[in-house]
UniProtKB/TrEMBL annotation:
Entry keyword set: Methyltransferase, Transferase
InterPro entries from the UniProt entry: SAM-dependent_MTases_sf
GO BP annotations listed: methylation
Domain of life: Bacteria
Phylogenetic lineage: Bacteria, Bacillati, Actinomycetota, Actinomycetes, Kitasatosporales
Species the sequence originates in: Streptomyces althioticus subsp. attaecolombicae
Record-given protein name: Class I SAM-dependent methyltransferase
Length: 283
């Protein structure tokens, strides 16, 4: 893969914290939700943006996506040149490491960009500009083939990958928010609030939609307590099924069984999003 012409990388160096299998929940969701787009793409390129101080997440992304789309290629992109140099010995067929930032220095348009734990150190006001840059780099939609275009998955997880929350965005902007957890470690759904992505984490206050959602999630979890005797999975499924009465849940029991639930972005978006959407993303 020949990188795009050199320019100053956009962004700042992150802490680089990473662990093997940290992003497995996110990867498996991507493979299930976006595998068809990767399979139909002429050039199924995925980008692991800000992979950190070690290359494990890029290696794992390649392996997991290839179970759904065998032709997938992965480019690990890091702004720190020392991290890129240390990752280069791990390159193999279908996997390269490049220096860059939010400009994404790869030729063409990626079908997937995964940016996990990258924006956590940024200010909330910077998120819109980063989303705009990254969405502009995605493969465009193609109505002739039924393609919705590339996907940006941006979110946060804990150090060992037990709790995740991410936003999925297409070329047109944000689509959904997914909450994913290891059910055996969950006391209540609102425990996931600490892993909300930067666009939402400061909005978990009364009056904001995401706060109302987590409040309803906890109430449904409490009401489903009798199902705990059948296991945490059955309690979660019952809880999410109850949420569907008031919230636009987009997935079904097959994903709920994995400890996930996905909700339309518009239902959780910060107040004022609908009024200012075009200026917010400049779309």
């Amino acid at each position: 893969m020949t990188p795009r012409p050199a320019s100053a990388p956009v962004g700042t160096v992150t802490r680089g914290t990473t662990n093997p299998n940290r992003l497995r929940r996110m990867d498996r969701w991507i493979a299930a939700a976006h595998g068809a787009e990767l399979r139909r793409a002429t050039d199924p390129l995925a980008v692991d943006l800000g992979y950190g101080a070690a290359p494990w997440t890029a290696l794992e992304l390649l392996h997991r996506l290839r179970t759904a789309a065998p032709r997938t290629r992965v480019a690990g992109v890091e702004i720190d040149p020392a991290r890129v140099a240390s990752a280069r010995p791990y390159e193999r067929e279908g996997l390269v490491f490049l220096r860059g930032g939010f400009e994404i220095p790869v030729p063409g348009s990626p079908v997937l960009v995964r940016a996990a734990n990258v924006l956590r150190q940024y200010d909330e006001g910077e998120v819109a500009g980063v989303w705009r840059l990254l969405c502009a780099r995605l493969a465009p939609a193609d109505p002739a083939t039924g393609s919705r275009g590339g996907l940006l998955v941006e979110g946060t997880c804990d150090e060992v990958g037990r709790r995740h929350v991410w936003v999925a965005l297409g070329p047109e902007g944000p689509r959904t928010v997914t909450f994913a957890t290891r059910l055996g470690s969950l006391e209540r759904p609102s425990d996931l609030a600490e892993r909300l992505p930067k666009a939402l984490i400061h909005r978990n206050v009364p009056g904001e939609p995401v706060h109302a959602f987590l409040r309803d999630f906890d109430r449904a979890w409490a009401a489903a307590a009798p199902y705990a005797s059948y296991g945490a999975r059955q309690r979660w499924i019952r809880t999410v099924r109850a949420l569907t009465a008031d919230w636009p849940v987009t997935d079904g029991p097959a994903r709920w069984r994995q400890g996930e639930v996905t909700v339309r972005w518009e239902a959780l978006a910060p107040l004022g999003w609908r009024d200012h959407r075009r200026s917010y993303l400049h779309l």
